[in-house]
Amino acid sequence: MDTREPKPKRYTFLTAGFMPIRTEADARTLTKQGAIAAGLLTLSELIGIVLSYFGVDLKTLQVTAADSVNIATFEGQLTVGIMAAMILVLVFMTWRIAAGRGYVSAALTLALLLYEAVSKILDRTLGGWMIFYFGMAVGLYGAIRACWWLRKSGPARKSAEVAAVFDAPKDADAPKDES
């Protein structure tokens, strides 16, 4: 008869989003992984903006003047402005995920990631991007679950229960002031 304790199941980055959440530490681990995934998406968007600004074709990585963003035109300025705003929104959503309070931010980031993956498929630039995007999607999925867990049963819920005890109405047996 085997009396050894079973080893705990090990989770890799590609499977960690599906691990069960039993404690706050498990949830914080998943939010950290989701924040890393959102940060990687932000970084890849920033690199794409910089490369396209300097005229690098993102499919072939060759410098071509035709693909550069002409910053002198209104369309070029609008494109750069929208992309810069998107980077700022992604940074904010990454911070919300890292704080453990951003299940909506994690869901929106996951939707943006899926949009990026579909655009890569339609542009026929698959390669290693799909493995990269799958790993980030798993991390963001775990972040959605962890942020929701923290909201429903984490420390914020416990502090709300404590506050409810102190805000409870006074005892009904106490004498009433009838003046």
Keywords for this structure?
mainly alpha, 5 helices
Short description:
This protein has helices at 24-53, 74-99, 103-122, 129-153, 155-166.
What does this structure look like?
The protein is 63% helix and 0% strand. The protein is mostly helical. The mean pLDDT is 77. It is built from 5 helices and no strands. The N and C termini lie far apart (79 Å). The chain has one domain. The radius of gyration is 24 Å and the shape is flat.
Q: What is the count of helical runs?
A: 5
The mean pLDDT is 77
Largest sheet data: none
Low-confidence segments: none
Computed structural class: mainly alpha
Query: How many β-strands, per DSSP?
Result: 0
The Rg value, from CA coordinates, equals 24 Å
Helix content: 55-70%
List the topology elements.
Layout: H1 24-53, H2 74-99, H3 103-122, H4 129-153, H5 155-166
Helix pairs in contact: 1-2, 1-4, 2-3, 3-4, 4-5
